[in-house]
Amino acid sequence: MPDYTVRVTIDSDSIKEMDKYTLYGFKAVKTSGDAEPVVWFADNSYSTNTDITWHTEYQAYASPFAQSGPISTYHPEDIELGETFKVEDKKCLGSVIGDPDPKQPITVTNRVLSTKFRVGIAQKPSVRDEFRPLCTSTMIADGTNAFMPVERVLLIFATKEIDEGAVITKAFSAGVLIDLTGAEKRTVSFSTQNSWKWDEKAKWAKKITQDDPITQHLVSAQQHRMLLHSA
Question: Where are the domains of the chain?
Answer without folding.
Answer: 3-230
